[in-house]
Design goal:
The protein has one domain (18-462): Cytochrome P450 (Cytochrome p450), CATH 1.10.630.10. It contains 15 helices and 12 strands. It has helices at residues 18-36, 55-64, 74-83, 92-102, 108-111, 115-136, 142-159, 165-186, 199-225, 234-240, 252-283, 285-299, 313-325, 357-360, 402-419, and strands at residues 39-44, 47-52, 69-70, 140-141, 332-336, 340-342, 345-347, 352-355, 420-424, 432-435, 439-442, 446-451. The strands form 4 sheets. A 5-stranded mixed beta sheet has the order 1-2-8-5-3. The chain has a 3-stranded antiparallel beta sheet with strand order 4-12-9. Strands 6-7 form a two-stranded antiparallel sheet. The N and C termini lie far apart (59 Å). It binds protoporphyrin IX containing FE. Protoporphyrin IX containing FE is lined by residues 87-88, 99, 261-262, 265-266, 269-270, 273, 328-329, 332, 391-393, 397, 399-401, 404-405.
Length: 463
């Protein structure tokens, strides 16, 4: 069959579209799909990248023809320097074996046990610093609080009580450096090797060593206590995990790689999802009011439990809609192993193919008024209908932590909205998405809080 080269914007002879990617990549991608359609070709220096933006094309790459798309990409190579060979960085048989070992620890039945870990950590924060900020009227740096909270929860879920607050603060800082640097390096035509003694390399290596130090100390203590150490955290489950086909267990190196991966993949993604949801609620008082009515009716003043979540459909819809507008993993990259054809266009072997949930979730054929925050659209729609909605990916590499992430985000958002009415601090600039490894809020989220007393009051109180 005769196939064509996909269309795309004009780029500079050597660097291609690198400058545009740096300047405002989200705008470039949105404008390009509007102008060129569902398959767009870009050049980043010598690398050819195809953005595929139709639900069927996304399903083809991530699911239907996934055998032809592996993770031998620059983004994964840079993550491998931190996580080593792990769920996030491998493909084929090595990945399949790791997934078989790790997946049972993330079964919904197991994850339900972490509801109390999550609500305990959230209650400590909300009853302390947040109530105090509401009382004094001080502006709260909600992004910093949520980020640290998500890390404390990830640490306790993975390692039980063995992560001290000082460890959590150190991991939080180190992961911040790792994520920031990893993304910056991807934007360069040539990424300086890590052995060069540059300031950036030293900072990155220092951050990796800080995380490694904490993880290795915990692993050593567990081994000294004998296998799982009697714990019921994720590490205990990983230590006991047996491959159902071969009976193999995870080696020490694999345990280190998987735990660092879970910290990296699970912490900032969930924190970012919660931050975007709080922003959208602060910007949309009528939605916040409706949510509070639901929370009041189902929970009253009590702390939510796992079983409550099935009775909170509007909370669920709010989270889904927030993940649609601001998917924390806004881009998913693969490499074509052999030539392929997508939407009538040639995808040459060796080129990169990206699915971008940020643009896919705004595809006008799938979503009416795609820029509007309308949680109701999820009340009567299957969430991943026709592959138009992929915040957790699709196919064999679908997020292993999806149940954990949704449990954590729903419980925390519910508790915040039970306790407080959210207002954006007046002196902060309009919030913009800041695409890095995750889709952060540029300049963070600064809130003023009003403590909710008694029942939900009137819609005016939410203004
Ligand atoms: C709102 C929060 C989260 C979002 C939006 C998210 C999103 C995603 C997406 C889109 C993928 C697919 C990547 C690909 O196809 O290459 C993925 C994979 C993954 N996620 Fe998540 N994630 C979240 C939370 C978590 C949590 C809490 C954990 C673990 C504690 C986690 C662990 C992983 C791992 C290990 C993978 C790789 C899976 C594989 O390839 O087998 N994620 N995530």
């Amino acid at each position: 069959m005769l196939t064509k080269t996909a269309p795309g914007p004009w780029g500079l002879p050597l660097s291609g579209h690198i400058m545009h990617f740096h300047r405002d990549v989200l705008r470039l991608l949105l404008q390009s799909v509007a102008k060129y359609g569902d398959v767009v070709r870009f050049r980043l220096g010598p690398h050819v990248v195809h953005l595929v933006n139709h639900p069927d094309h996304a399903a083809h790459v991530l699911h239907g023809n996934h055998q032809n798309y592996d993770r031998a990409t620059r983004s994964v190579a840079s993550i491998r320097r931190i996580c080593g060979e792990s769920l996030l960085t491998t493909s084929g048989e090595i990945w399949r074996r790791q997934r078989r070992l790790v997946q049972p620890a993330f079964h919904q039945r197991v994850i339900a046990n972490f509801a109390v870990t999550i609500t305990d950590a959230a209650a400590a924060l909300l009853d302390g610093a947040w109530r105090e900020a509401a009382r004094t009227g001080a502006t709260l740096d909600a992004s910093a609080h949520i980020s640290r909270l998500a890390l404390v929860i990830a640490g306790r879920a993975l390692f039980g009580a063995e992560v001290s607050d000082a460890d959590a603060a150190q991991i939080d800082r180190a992961l911040g450096v790792i994520l920031h640097q990893t993304f910056r390096r991807l934007g360069r035509i040539i990424d300086p090797p890590l052995w060069l003694p540059t300031r950036e390399n030293r900072a990155l290596l220092g951050a990796i060593a800080a995380v490694d130090g904490i993880v290795e100390r915990i692993l050593a203590r567990r081994h000294a206590q004998g296998q799982a150490g009697g714990g019921s955290d994720l590490l205990a489950l990983l230590l006991q995990a047996r491959d159902p086909e071969t009976g193999d267990t995870l080696s020490d190196q694999q345990l280190r790689n998987e735990t660092v991966t879970l910290l990296l993949a699970g912490h900032e993604t969930t924190a970012t999802a919660i931050q975007w949801t709080l922003l959208l609620l602060a910007q949309n008082p009528a939605v916040a009011f409706r949510l509070r009515q639901e929370l009041d009716a189902v929970l009253g003043d009590r702390i939510p439990k796992f079983d409550d979540l099935a009775r909170l459909p509007f909370l669920n819809a709010v989270l889904n809609e927030s993940l649609r507008l601001y998917p924390p993993i806004w881009i998913i990259e693969r490499r074509a192993i052999d030539d392929d054809t997508i939407g009538g266009y040639r995808i040459p072997a060796g080129s990169s193919v990206v699915v971008c949930p940020f643009t896919l979730h705004r595809h006008p054929a799938s979503w009416q008024q795609p820029e509007a925050f309308q949680p109701e659209r999820f009340l009567n729609r299957q969430v991943n209908e026709r592959n138009a909605y992929l915040p957790f990916g699709s196919g064999p590499h679908t997020c292993v932590g999806v149940h954990f992430a949704l449990l954590e985000a729903r419980l925390i958002v519910a508790m915040i909205c039970q306790g407080f009415t959210l207002h954006l601090a007046g002196d902060t600039p309009p919030v913009q998405p800041d695409p890095g490894i995750t889709l952060r809020l540029r300049s963070g989220l600064h809130l003023r809080l009003k403590e909710n007393t008694g029942r939900h009051g009137s819609p005016q109180e939410h203004r």
